Amino acid sequence: MEIFIAPDKRVKDVGSSREDVYESSEASLESTKGRVEAEKQKITDKDNKMLTEQKQTQQQAEASAVTQQKTRKTLKGDQERSTIKSIQSKTDTVKDLFLSQTPSPGEGRGRGLRPGGKGPTPPEEPFAGFKLKAVPLKFIKKLQDIMLKEAESIGSAAVFECEVSPSTAITTWMKDDCNLRESPKHKFTSDGKDRKLNIIDVQLSDTGEYTCIAKNAGKEISCKAKLIVEELPLKWIKELEEETSAMKGQPLYMTCELNKEKDAIWKKNGEVLKKQAGKIQINVIGMQHALTIQNSTEADTGLISCEVSGQEDVKTSTNHVKPKANATFKCELFKESPNWKWLKGEEEVTPSDKIEIKKEGKELTLTIKNCQPEDVAQYCMEVEGRLYTANLTLGEREAEILKPLASVEVVEKQDAVFETEISEHDVPGEWKLKGEVLTRSPTCEIHMERGVRKLTLKNCQLDHAGEVSYQALNAMTSAMLNMDFVVPLKDVSVPEKKQAKFECTITKDVSKVMWYRGDDVITPDQKYDIIDDGKKHMLIINCCEFDDEDAYTIAVLGKMSTARLTVDGIRLRFISPLKDQTVKEGTTARFELELSHENIPVTWYKNDVKIHPSRTVLTHVDGKKHVLEMKEVTLDDTCQIKAEAKGIPSMANLTVIEGDAYFTVKLQDYTAVEKDEVALDCELSKDVEVMWYHNEAEIKPSKMVAIKAEGKRRTLVIKKVANKDKGQYVCDCGTDKTMATLHIEARHIKVVRPVYGVEVFDGETARFEVELSEDDDVEIVEDGAKHTLVLYNCKVPQTGELVFTAANAKCSANLKVKEPPVSFITPLADVHAYEKDEAKFELEISREPKSFRWLKGSQELTNDDKFEIQVEGKRHTLIVKSARYEDEAKYMFEAEDKRTSGKLIIKGDYELNQRGQCVSGRQHYVNLSVLLSLPIKDVTVKERETAEFSVELSHDKIPVVWYKNDVRLHPSKVVHMSEDGKVFTLAFKEVSIDDTSMIKVEAMSKTSEAMLTVLGQYHADEGDLYFTVKLQNYTAVEKDEVVLSCELSKAADEVRWYKDERPMQADGKRRMLVIKKAARSSIGSYTCDCGIDKTTADLNIEERDIKVVRPLYSVEVTETETAKFETEISEEDLHATWKLKGEQLHPSPDVEIKDEGARHILVIFNCKMDMAGSIDFSAANAKSSAQLRVKARVIALARPLADASVTAGETATFECELSYEGIAVEWFLGGTKLEPSDRPAVEFSKPLQDQTVEEEATATLECEVSREKAEVRWFKDGTEIRKTKKYEMIVDGHKRALIIHDCTLDDSRTYACDAKQFKTSCFLNVERESSRERLLYRYQERRLTESFKVFNYFLASSAPHIEFSKPLHDVEVKEKESARFECEVSREDVKVSVRPRINISIKV
């Protein structure tokens, strides 16, 4: 409420004198009104004191409100209530006189007004300048987080408290965004401004975030807090007594207790005990488990244990027997171990006539026969160095307390030690705390040393205070454990930025304590949280900094406890911060800083945008020094550079000034042929004038030389270059220069048609012609009477006589062209080869020599079994086959009068160790005999599981190739290949029904095959409907079109979408929900339900302001390689779309789409040439594009064609092997292209025949073709059949067969075998079999242990009783051997059904 007072210093706030109003009558109120009227006349002359009077009046109003509240609390009974009504009536009268007529919601209800309703008409002017305004809606006190441990919270209540203003605000409660309603579990309390949520009987499931929402006058606010219940680890609070005895015929009672409710199992001698009326009773009361054995006998003697998950790895129990009886000790190992032994005292126990030791699996048993007093001792089981003990006692004994217990007083979390001494050294006795049996645990240590018994209670808590007792046989002693009043604080050490917690627990409930930091009082705020929960008080310091290190004190009930906070972490600082840099454009800017510590990550920013390394941006780290280099900076790079290390920044400015011009693209050396046109290009950083130079002489434009300038690009064009144009060319811009060398090669001219002899008659003209390959290498110049013939680039074939004739003038001359001397462009070099490998000498000569030869020493070499000589143009090769040590020599090549030589050096062959690994020399696979030590096996998995195939070879590092249905496999997102020594593994992830196929592995011509069978989740053939691609959370921006898509395992008739019944679009197995022009109202959770499975995703709509932080970059790959595109946008969790050549991409085996926060990644596996094109990324308004370039593979012949010789009428086969798969090839015969139709037509020598089989049987459809290697395809009602678990195709010579397993009624169809030109078909009829046979068949498929018990049941329904006198047994045979199964029944005249797929031979 805000009160505005007119400028009158003497006006007194009526609210400030409410206490007087309660004591006065209505007459005094009228006089007060008159007095105020008089005072009001004096206000106009004293405006300068208005502010002072306002403050005084406001203070008086607050004091009056406090007094009124105290008065109301003191009134009691009916008389007090009537007095309140009287005072309230008078107060309302005063309010009507002095205040505005707009009541608060609380006052409205007091006068019979509805909240927000319109009150009586206000006076024309507010009396005495008062004006009432609405109280703003706010939380005076917000909710606080509550943290409980499971042991403290179970059965107790958690209370969330807050205060809201005004008190009339309506509040509601929520848990994890779900509304809460008042119930026995949740109690809501509203008292004035106080609002409380009481959670009764707190459980682990109550953990979550709770929200209080306050509403008033159309406004709404909220505050939140968390309830955290820490789960308690499972352990025994009370264990079974080591030995329990009872009188014969009396009941035997055993009990134990867990720290939390958990199912337990009772066992006797390792066998589970079950309830038995009148004998065994098992009870569970909360966390306590009890076993009662009624009317106990000697047969009940044995090992009794209670087991529950979470106990120790080795479980042991003790035994107690009577004299001359057998004592048995048993224990169970958690895992197999050879390191165990039984001990009696410290001596190892060995088997004898008296002692029997057994081991069955993980169970160990020690039996002591005919127990005598000398057998009484402590027996131990030692496993892996750990001891587990038990005592053997006989009969009933008595003990005497020699030293009684003494009371102990400790402070919380200290250790309490109790000690007593008894007369019987070998009796362990029993310790109890407040009546509860104590057992050894991390907080309870029990020691025995001769007759001394010691109990140590570690880390004592306040609830441990009570009586401690010890009993051994009939002797008992007790004492008190007393706890000090206050548990002191402990020093706390936490890492930087983490939360620190000081905790103190007292024995009394105190609502408020005082916390201090040094001498300063601590109050709750963002830094400090104070939690007072009855006896427990906590101070939580959030986000600890080094400045928070200090002494913290708690004061309660006159006592104080102090502890110190230490913050651990790296006290990082900049030894050398960044410095401003001013550089010229085109140069490199370098920023360097030095930290106080090493191995600290530093993040660089440019104008607060994170910098990522690239071609022009590099980062370096050298110990404590961090460097950022920005190459080829431009004027646009002027910015602020910031380096941030663990939140500590250092900033500097980068200023780029206009720099001198430089060449961004430099000249490149060029080799041209005479008469060619040459263009030398370069590019500048800016548009400036340049000068061109040739061999330091300036070049001027001319008819043969052109100088071009296009923007920043500069070009020098030389037309018809000659030998004089070769040399060095320089382009100089004044501040930079670039140079290149131009090489000129002579043109190769041949005589196409030489001069031929001519015979003519007297007086006729004779014309001689010669035709050259180049017409511009011959020039005839006529200069008056002077005639000149110029032959350029003369060649050896031009040698001969040249004749000149003019009228009757004639002359001739000889042209002799000599060959240039032979020179070696690439001479011979020494060759190193391993023994038995090929050694190859290669050289390249300047021209083809007239004669040449190879020499080994002085011996001339020719082509034979040892040496192979190859000539390819100017390249000559000598191959030494299967090189040996005796082949080491100096090899020479002679060409005319030139020679070159090289040595052959032989290295030792490699060796393989016992594991087949190469330990010396080379690592080839020549002459290795690789064996499949462990071939691959058939694998059967369910849909969406992972299928793995493994093969083990005799050697490691051998190339292995995997095939699926004879198609080579390559690694992808769902296909993984790995190698571990000799073991090679192939894994298929998220398999589907379509992945059922034949898998083959090939290693150096050795192969192994296995079947991959994929079963449905609930059916062997199809699998129930489920979502293979689930909905993904989607974040879009307003007005975008939102597409939520998922994919089913198979096409379904209908799915249901949930979210305001949005329309659904279906496309086969894919399901899409399209929301056009999404708005904020579209936010929510969307679910697609197919009846059996459902998938859900959240849709979030954000405002449109997305930027591309790091754009896409183009990627170039070779065919079959993987291309990866990556971009980063300014917002996280935003749905993005990827497109390839305008087509949207979706996740598939060849496409992987990932988003890691703001980073979005596209991975395309097994790239093809037709995939080359534009890659487009879009997320809201953010877009980026790049190019995917796919280079063609270099295809070569790994194995060329070989000649074939056949007899007329036979088939000739030609085979070759390419370096890659999937390459289209064309075949030619004598230059004529061959088509598949050119082969002889394939006919069916034996067509298919109609068949009839029973349901679930196997059908075999057979036919024969005219050619052995003819290819056929199988069809079912026109649909092609692929090889799966159900369908199997057989090719055996001319025979072709289709095997159909597990025939169903739906398999009654027409089947066809197609050989292109000819086709044969048949009809398969599947008949329903009897229910009895069908059930028997299914029963056999499950391969149960008792194979024919159910079979007997079904036969008994219609035939005499039959039993199997000799049942079936498992049979193990080697591959390709026969497996024989036999059984025998009780009757001879019994009809027995045998299923072919089980392959069982039954003898009746």
UniProtKB/TrEMBL annotation:
Sequence ranges assigned to domain Ig-like in this UniProt record: 136-222, 233-322, 649-731, 1038-1088, 1240-1331
Catalytically driven reaction(s): L-seryl-[protein] + ATP = O-phospho-L-seryl-[protein] + ADP + H(+); L-threonyl-[protein] + ATP = O-phospho-L-threonyl-[protein] + ADP + H(+)
UniProt key word Transmembrane helix: no
SUPFAM superfamilies, per the entry: Immunoglobulin
Disordered: region residues: 1-128
InterPro entries on file: Ig-like_dom, Ig-like_dom_sf, Ig-like_fold, Ig_I-set, Ig_sub, Ig_sub2, Obscurin/Obscurin-like_Reg
A GO CC term attached to the entry: cytoplasm
Cofactor(s) needed for function: Mg(2+)
Biased segments, Basic and acidic residues type: 7-21, 32-52
Family (UniProt): Belongs to the protein kinase superfamily. CAMK Ser/Thr protein kinase family.
EC number(s) per entry: 2.7.11.1
Protein name: non-specific serine/threonine protein kinase
Example of a GO MF term: ATP binding
CDD domains given in the database record: Ig
Major localization class: cytoplasm
This protein's UniProt keywords: ATP-binding, Calmodulin-binding, Cytoplasm, Disulfide bond, Immunoglobulin domain, Kinase, Magnesium, Metal-binding, Nucleotide-binding, Nucleus, Phosphoprotein, Repeat, Serine/threonine-protein kinase, Transferase
Organism: Dissostichus mawsoni (Antarctic cod)
Alphabetical list of Pfam families matching this protein: I-set (PF07679), Ig_2 (PF13895)
